[in-house]
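FORM 12-B: Structure-to-Sequence Request
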């Protein structure tokens, strides 16, 4: 892409106004079976156009910009009337004449920005990134698009658009007016532009000059200013600090033999060995965060075979999943909440990323690249690859840094911001006795055998959480039922001891680890 920045983006914005996420969703039907083998955290929303309104403006915008299909000149005039009233077709930097019609040379996707956050700067973690209340919520992002809209394999300098990981990170991160934000490995600039829309001063870096061109195109399209710098990781911002660092870095674990086969895909592969790239992002981060700085990342990490691992019924034992991430924080002084969202075996991982790059079974290089991926993992003694979220910040307490590791592979919350806010705020649990707790939006489920007076099982589930269920006994169920912020933990335990004629110290010893666990999972909150 070579953007003509003399182009008047206001006329294009006018034509894109009908092109929103909700409008496109109304013109599409899901074809989920095509992607059933992808892990849920990375599954795109596969779509085909509906036939009921094939000539609608939204359907045509989706065909032209969303899928890059060839449309007629008359159809182009229908969807871009303002633009074509100002420019000749040959002057448009994003249109090519082809096959008796016209085709977009870039993908443009509509994006509904996450809801407005009213959390003040300096609090531990805001609920979501946001636009200000006065601004429109729909943004548009240009890129090379998703793999399913390209025939054959992707170019090594391909610039990805909006995917599931993008939406997840947008909901995790939070920005405020006046903050200084670093979008590390910005790609087409989505998170940089969200931060700028929230009023932050933004620096966006990438090793891809093509990606930075897209980022500047998108900044102009969405009426914000961002500073883009070419370079690897923190090199372009040497000596600088930021209030927020956000990154979906090129973390895919790719053996060198695979790069030899298919090239280095810049959007996902930083060229490092194993998971060394995400490790370096974290170990070098303290130099670039302000004292109260926060960071939001997505990443992959290696899960090694257990020492002296032996096959047992066809399965190979893996080391604890958090062994590798724990090494990243040994000397950083960072607090962290790490949430593992998925685990893929080597074969699954190789198939996922080959497919992501447009290399499918039957491709002349598929078999060799697949074998090279597995051989590389075997040489590195890997049992699996973990995938998930990383919330980081400088430790501000007179205590050793705290890192909390959660393995939460249940269904993903639609908006993870609120629950991860509570998880971050409760990463360090203070002394329990004087805390006043609330049970947030917990749901309690009881299962009875027919005719039974007492439940067989009692579980707690957080609808806006990660699908985790806590199995409760009578003590925990009774405790949580009265967590409305009125009584302290000590008062509730004392009342339970009186009602159940039990020793309060025994009840406390029994409940304390369960209460701490529910706090760190965001199922309970500290009511101030």
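FORM 12-B RESPONSE
SEQUENCE OUT:
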């Amino acid at each position: 892409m070579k953007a003509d920045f003399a182009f008047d983006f206001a006329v294009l914005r006018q034509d894109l106004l009908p092109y929103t996420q909700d409008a496109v969703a109304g013109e599409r039907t899901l074809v989920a079976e095509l992607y059933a083998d992808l892990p849920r955290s990375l599954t795109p929303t596969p779509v085909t156009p509906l036939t009921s309104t094939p000539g609608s403006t939204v359907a045509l915008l989706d065909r032209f910009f969303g899928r890059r299909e060839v449309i007629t000149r008359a159809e182009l005039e229908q969807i871009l009337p303002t633009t074509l009233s100002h420019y000749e077709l040959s002057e448009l930097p994003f249109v090519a004449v082809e096959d008796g019609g016209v085709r977009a040379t870039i993908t443009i996707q509509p994006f509904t920005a996450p809801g407005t956050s009213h959390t003040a700067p300096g609090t531990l973690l805001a609920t979501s990134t946001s636009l200000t209340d006065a601004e429109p919520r729909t943004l548009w992002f240009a890129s090379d698009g998703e793999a399913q809209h390209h025939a054959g394999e992707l170019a090594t300098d391909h610039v990805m658009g909006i995917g599931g990981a993008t939406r997840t990170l947008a909901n995790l991160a939070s920005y405020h007016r006046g903050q200084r934000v670093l979008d590390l490995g910005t790609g087409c600039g989505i998170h940089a532009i969200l931060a700028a829309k929230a009023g932050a001063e933004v620096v966006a870096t990438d090793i891809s000059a093509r990606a930075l061109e897209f980022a500047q195109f998108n900044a102009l399209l969405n009426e914000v200013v961002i500073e883009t710098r070419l370079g690897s990781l923190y090199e372009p911002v040497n000596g600088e600090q930021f209030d927020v660092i956000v990154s979906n870095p090129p973390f895919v674990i790719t053996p060198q033999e695979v790069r030899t086969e298919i090239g280095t895909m810049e959007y996902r592969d930083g060229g490092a060995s194993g998971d060394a790239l995400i490790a370096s992002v974290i170990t070098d981060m303290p130099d670039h965060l302000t004292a109260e700085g926060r960071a939001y990342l997505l990443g992959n990490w290696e899960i090694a075979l257990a020492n002296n691992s032996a096959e047992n019924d066809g399965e190979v034992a893996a080391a604890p999943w958090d062994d590798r991430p724990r090494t990243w924080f040994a000397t950083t002084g960072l607090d962290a909440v790490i949430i593992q969202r998925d685990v893929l075996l080597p074969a699954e991982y190789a198939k996922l990323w080959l497919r992501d790059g447009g290399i499918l079974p039957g491709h002349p290089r598929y078999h060799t690249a697949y074998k090279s991926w597995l051989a590389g993992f075997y040489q590195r003694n890997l049992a699996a690859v973990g995938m998930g979220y990383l919330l980081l910040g400088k430790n501000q307490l007179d205590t050793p840094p705290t890192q909390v590791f959660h393995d939460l592979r249940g269904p993903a919350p639609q908006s993870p911001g609120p629950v991860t806010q509570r998880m971050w705020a409760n990463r360090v649990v203070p002394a329990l006795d004087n805390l006043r707790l609330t049970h947030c939006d917990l749901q309690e489920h009881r299962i009875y055998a027919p005719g039974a007076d007492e439940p067989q099982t009692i579980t707690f589930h957080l609808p806006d959480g990660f699908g985790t269920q806590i199995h409760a006994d009578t003590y925990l169920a009774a405790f949580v039922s009265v967590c409305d912020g009125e009584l302290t933990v000590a008062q509730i335990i004392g009342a339970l001891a009186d009602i159940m004629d039990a020793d309060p110290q025994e009840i406390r010893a029994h409940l304390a680890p369960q209460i701490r666990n529910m706090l760190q999972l965001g199922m309970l909150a500290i009511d101030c």
